[in-house]
Amino acid sequence: MKTSKYRVKGEKLKLSSFKTDETGKGSESEALERVQKRLPKIAALHERMYAEGKQSLLVVIQARDAGGKDGTVEHVLHGINPQHVVVTSFKVPSALEQAHDFLWRVHAHAPAAGMSAVFNRSHYEEVLVTRVHGQVSDEEAERRFEHIRAFEALLHDRGTRIVKLYLHISKDEQKERLQDRLDDPEKRWKFNVGDLKERALWDDYTRAYQDALAATSTRDAPWYVIPADHKWFRNDLVSQILLETLQDMDPQFPEPDFDPATISIK
User: Is the pTM of this model over 0.85?
Assistant: First the structure.
């Protein structure tokens, strides 16, 4: 499939123009087979990136509650050596973090050379949740968009490739997933009553997401809108995007600083 179809382009965005229940071509079993074939390739390229020690990868994942952030990490990134990837989730900022600028706590978690970082919820919470709840004005949100673009440009200039994924689910699908959590004793720990209050603000979040994605999807830090009602299609598309990204980065194993032919192990 053409991943460029899902990339956010231009200054105006309507999430309603993106399907949430897309299934692409082929069946679920075929999609699962494609993912399984990609995972070793992703892992091998990541191993080369780690050995090369020059480039890094940042994957930003945003979604509504029950949107599939954890599942995406579990199914698409589990083949990577866990020593080479760090997953960070940015929750409500602490008192210390609130005493600094909104990007202060984020920069320390940007990936080092050779590493990957996954932001499972990210600095974008500061232009989504805060905006919906009136903690920042529209004017302040616009300034934050500018700061985010500059921050991501800095990371890119340092050698970090950035991929940002918005997992796009429908309101009906969210209802089913929340109900499933509530009904299943083994999933009930995931249920948060506060999620229902956020669900009631669905249209406000839609507007906030549309503004944020349109304002911050750049050539060097693009957003992709991922149809996520069907988890198997989500994993198929995300794995392809990550594989294409790593292939484009084309990391190389470093040349040894010695002549292997002269080494004799006894």
Answer: yes
